[in-house]
From TrEMBL:
It comes from Nitrincola lacisaponensis. The lineage of its organism: Bacteria, Pseudomonadati, Pseudomonadota, Gammaproteobacteria, Oceanospirillales. This is Putative membrane protein. InterPro entries: CbiM/NikMN. The chain crosses the membrane at residues 12-29, 41-59, 71-96, 108-126, 138-171, 183-205. Its main location: membrane. Keywords: Cell membrane, Membrane, Transmembrane, Transmembrane helix, Transport. The keyword Oxidoreductase does not apply. It is found in: Cell membrane. One of its GO terms (cellular component) is plasma membrane. Pfam families: CbiM.
Protein backbone atom coordinates (compact mmCIF):
# COMPACT_ATOMS: atom_id res chain seq x y z
CA UNK A 1 0.00 0.00 0.00
CA UNK A 2 1.26 3.47 -0.87
CA UNK A 3 0.35 7.01 0.10
CA UNK A 4 0.27 8.87 -3.21
CA UNK A 5 -0.66 12.34 -1.96
CA UNK A 6 1.20 14.50 0.56
CA UNK A 7 -1.01 14.09 3.60
CA UNK A 8 1.43 13.09 6.35
CA UNK A 9 3.04 15.49 8.79
CA UNK A 10 6.65 16.54 8.22
CA UNK A 11 7.80 14.68 11.35
CA UNK A 12 6.89 11.30 9.80
CA UNK A 13 8.40 12.26 6.46
CA UNK A 14 11.71 13.51 7.89
CA UNK A 15 11.90 10.68 10.39
CA UNK A 16 11.49 8.17 7.58
CA UNK A 17 14.06 10.02 5.47
CA UNK A 18 16.69 9.92 8.21
CA UNK A 19 16.05 6.26 8.99
CA UNK A 20 16.16 5.27 5.33
CA UNK A 21 19.26 7.38 4.64
CA UNK A 22 21.24 5.73 7.45
CA UNK A 23 20.11 2.28 6.33
CA UNK A 24 21.01 3.00 2.71
CA UNK A 25 24.53 4.10 3.65
CA UNK A 26 25.00 0.85 5.58
CA UNK A 27 23.68 -1.19 2.65
CA UNK A 28 25.97 0.55 0.16
CA UNK A 29 28.98 -0.26 2.35
CA UNK A 30 28.12 -3.95 2.79
CA UNK A 31 27.19 -4.83 -0.80
CA UNK A 32 29.99 -6.72 -2.64
CA UNK A 33 30.35 -4.22 -5.48
CA UNK A 34 33.45 -5.94 -6.88
CA UNK A 35 31.47 -9.13 -7.47
CA UNK A 36 28.55 -7.28 -9.05
CA UNK A 37 30.82 -5.28 -11.37
CA UNK A 38 32.69 -8.43 -12.37
CA UNK A 39 29.71 -10.74 -12.97
CA UNK A 40 27.61 -9.77 -15.99
CA UNK A 41 25.01 -12.39 -15.12
CA UNK A 42 24.26 -10.71 -11.80
CA UNK A 43 24.02 -7.32 -13.50
CA UNK A 44 21.52 -8.68 -16.02
CA UNK A 45 19.43 -10.21 -13.24
CA UNK A 46 19.42 -6.94 -11.27
CA UNK A 47 18.46 -4.77 -14.24
CA UNK A 48 15.91 -7.28 -15.49
CA UNK A 49 14.32 -7.58 -12.06
CA UNK A 50 14.10 -3.80 -11.74
CA UNK A 51 12.46 -3.49 -15.17
CA UNK A 52 9.90 -6.19 -14.37
CA UNK A 53 9.16 -4.61 -11.01
CA UNK A 54 8.47 -1.25 -12.68
CA UNK A 55 5.88 -2.97 -14.87
CA UNK A 56 4.39 -4.85 -11.92
CA UNK A 57 4.03 -1.70 -9.84
CA UNK A 58 2.05 -0.08 -12.63
CA UNK A 59 -0.78 -2.51 -11.85
CA UNK A 60 -2.50 -0.85 -8.93
CA UNK A 61 -5.92 -0.09 -7.52
CA UNK A 62 -7.13 2.84 -5.44
CA UNK A 63 -8.48 2.08 -1.98
CA UNK A 64 -9.26 5.63 -0.87
CA UNK A 65 -8.34 9.10 -2.08
CA UNK A 66 -4.83 8.72 -0.64
CA UNK A 67 -4.13 4.98 -0.70
CA UNK A 68 -3.28 2.59 -3.50
CA UNK A 69 -2.48 -1.11 -3.42
CA UNK A 70 -0.32 -3.14 -5.80
CA UNK A 71 1.79 -6.29 -5.90
CA UNK A 72 5.17 -5.71 -4.24
CA UNK A 73 7.32 -8.62 -5.40
CA UNK A 74 9.92 -7.82 -2.71
CA UNK A 75 9.96 -11.38 -1.37
CA UNK A 76 11.18 -12.70 -4.72
CA UNK A 77 13.89 -10.03 -4.83
CA UNK A 78 14.94 -10.80 -1.26
CA UNK A 79 15.20 -14.53 -1.86
CA UNK A 80 17.07 -13.96 -5.13
CA UNK A 81 19.56 -11.31 -4.03
CA UNK A 82 19.39 -11.03 -0.24
CA UNK A 83 17.62 -8.26 1.65
CA UNK A 84 20.32 -5.63 1.03
CA UNK A 85 20.24 -5.84 -2.77
CA UNK A 86 16.46 -6.24 -2.66
CA UNK A 87 16.19 -2.92 -0.80
CA UNK A 88 18.55 -1.29 -3.31
CA UNK A 89 16.63 -2.57 -6.35
CA UNK A 90 13.28 -1.73 -4.77
CA UNK A 91 14.53 1.77 -3.98
CA UNK A 92 15.56 2.34 -7.59
CA UNK A 93 12.15 1.17 -8.78
CA UNK A 94 10.36 3.42 -6.27
CA UNK A 95 12.47 6.34 -7.50
CA UNK A 96 11.53 5.53 -11.11
CA UNK A 97 7.85 5.41 -10.17
CA UNK A 98 8.21 8.80 -8.50
CA UNK A 99 10.00 10.26 -11.54
CA UNK A 100 7.16 8.98 -13.72
CA UNK A 101 4.68 10.83 -11.51
CA UNK A 102 2.99 7.69 -10.23
CA UNK A 103 4.19 8.36 -6.68
CA UNK A 104 4.51 11.58 -4.72
CA UNK A 105 7.96 13.09 -4.08
CA UNK A 106 6.85 14.22 -0.63
CA UNK A 107 5.84 10.68 0.32
CA UNK A 108 8.98 9.05 -1.09
CA UNK A 109 10.76 8.41 2.27
CA UNK A 110 7.66 6.86 3.87
CA UNK A 111 6.91 4.79 0.78
CA UNK A 112 10.50 3.53 0.72
CA UNK A 113 10.37 2.42 4.35
CA UNK A 114 6.91 0.86 4.29
CA UNK A 115 6.93 -0.67 0.81
CA UNK A 116 10.57 -1.57 0.29
CA UNK A 117 12.48 -1.89 3.57
CA UNK A 118 9.78 -3.51 5.70
CA UNK A 119 8.71 -6.25 3.22
CA UNK A 120 12.37 -7.09 2.54
CA UNK A 121 13.04 -7.40 6.28
CA UNK A 122 9.94 -9.54 6.83
CA UNK A 123 10.91 -11.82 3.93
CA UNK A 124 14.45 -12.36 5.21
CA UNK A 125 13.15 -12.86 8.77
CA UNK A 126 10.80 -15.63 7.58
CA UNK A 127 13.71 -17.24 5.72
CA UNK A 128 15.97 -17.14 8.79
CA UNK A 129 13.30 -18.66 11.05
CA UNK A 130 12.59 -21.44 8.53
CA UNK A 131 16.30 -22.18 8.13
CA UNK A 132 16.85 -22.28 11.88
CA UNK A 133 13.85 -24.37 12.92
CA UNK A 134 12.84 -26.57 9.97
CA UNK A 135 14.57 -29.11 7.71
CA UNK A 136 16.10 -27.84 4.49
CA UNK A 137 13.44 -29.14 2.16
CA UNK A 138 12.40 -27.95 -1.31
CA UNK A 139 8.69 -27.77 -0.43
CA UNK A 140 9.24 -26.12 2.95
CA UNK A 141 11.30 -23.41 1.26
CA UNK A 142 8.74 -22.99 -1.53
CA UNK A 143 5.60 -22.82 0.61
CA UNK A 144 6.90 -21.03 3.70
CA UNK A 145 9.62 -18.73 2.37
CA UNK A 146 8.09 -17.92 -1.03
CA UNK A 147 4.29 -18.27 -0.72
CA UNK A 148 3.73 -17.54 2.98
CA UNK A 149 6.67 -15.15 3.28
CA UNK A 150 5.37 -12.97 0.46
CA UNK A 151 1.88 -12.87 1.91
CA UNK A 152 3.17 -11.95 5.35
CA UNK A 153 5.49 -9.31 3.88
CA UNK A 154 2.76 -7.48 2.00
CA UNK A 155 0.42 -7.78 4.99
CA UNK A 156 2.87 -6.18 7.42
CA UNK A 157 3.83 -3.60 4.80
CA UNK A 158 0.21 -2.55 4.37
CA UNK A 159 -0.41 -2.60 8.10
CA UNK A 160 2.62 -0.37 8.73
CA UNK A 161 1.31 2.28 6.35
CA UNK A 162 -2.16 2.03 7.86
CA UNK A 163 -0.73 2.49 11.36
CA UNK A 164 1.20 5.59 10.27
CA UNK A 165 -1.96 7.13 8.82
CA UNK A 166 -3.81 6.34 12.05
CA UNK A 167 -1.06 7.59 14.38
CA UNK A 168 -0.73 10.78 12.34
CA UNK A 169 -4.47 11.39 12.63
CA UNK A 170 -5.16 11.23 8.88
CA UNK A 171 -7.87 8.58 9.27
CA UNK A 172 -9.64 7.05 12.23
CA UNK A 173 -8.82 3.41 12.87
CA UNK A 174 -12.46 2.51 12.23
CA UNK A 175 -12.24 3.95 8.71
CA UNK A 176 -8.87 2.32 8.03
CA UNK A 177 -10.18 -1.03 9.19
CA UNK A 178 -13.39 -0.68 7.19
CA UNK A 179 -11.72 0.50 3.97
CA UNK A 180 -8.51 -1.51 4.07
CA UNK A 181 -7.31 -3.54 7.06
CA UNK A 182 -10.08 -6.13 6.97
CA UNK A 183 -9.23 -6.87 3.34
CA UNK A 184 -5.52 -7.48 3.94
CA UNK A 185 -5.91 -11.30 3.76
CA UNK A 186 -7.39 -10.90 0.27
CA UNK A 187 -4.32 -8.90 -0.77
CA UNK A 188 -1.90 -11.29 0.90
CA UNK A 189 -3.15 -14.34 -1.02
CA UNK A 190 -2.45 -13.14 -4.58
CA UNK A 191 0.88 -11.63 -3.48
CA UNK A 192 1.87 -15.02 -2.11
CA UNK A 193 0.73 -16.78 -5.27
CA UNK A 194 2.63 -14.49 -7.64
CA UNK A 195 5.88 -14.65 -5.67
CA UNK A 196 5.48 -18.36 -5.07
CA UNK A 197 4.90 -19.19 -8.73
CA UNK A 198 7.88 -17.10 -9.85
CA UNK A 199 10.14 -18.61 -7.19
CA UNK A 200 9.00 -22.16 -7.97
CA UNK A 201 9.88 -21.68 -11.64
CA UNK A 202 13.34 -20.37 -10.77
CA UNK A 203 13.95 -23.11 -8.20
CA UNK A 204 13.26 -25.76 -10.85
CA UNK A 205 14.87 -24.23 -13.94
CA UNK A 206 17.37 -21.62 -12.66
CA UNK A 207 18.25 -22.33 -9.01
CA UNK A 208 21.59 -20.58 -9.57
CA UNK A 209 19.68 -17.28 -9.80
CA UNK A 210 18.59 -17.56 -6.15
CA UNK A 211 21.16 -16.44 -3.61
CA UNK A 212 19.32 -18.00 -0.66
CA UNK A 213 18.64 -21.36 -2.32
CA UNK A 214 21.26 -24.13 -2.54
CA UNK A 215 19.99 -26.77 -4.98
CA UNK A 216 22.49 -29.33 -3.67
CA UNK A 217 21.09 -29.07 -0.14
CA UNK A 218 17.41 -28.58 -0.99
CA UNK A 219 17.17 -31.05 -3.89
CA UNK A 220 20.20 -33.29 -4.44
CA UNK A 221 20.67 -34.33 -0.81
CA UNK A 222 16.98 -35.09 -0.17
Amino acid sequence: MNVTVGVLSTSWIWGSAVFYGVLLLWIVKRIPWSVILRERGIQHLLFGSAALLVLLWQLRAGVTDYLTIYFLGLTTLTLMFGWDLAVLVGSVVMLVMTLLGVESWQMLPVNLVCNVVIPAWVSIAVLRVVEARLPKNFFIYMFLCAFAGAGLAVGISGLSMALILWLDGIYSWAKIYHDYAQYLPLIMLPEGLINGIIMTGMMVFHPDWIRTFDAKIYIDDQ
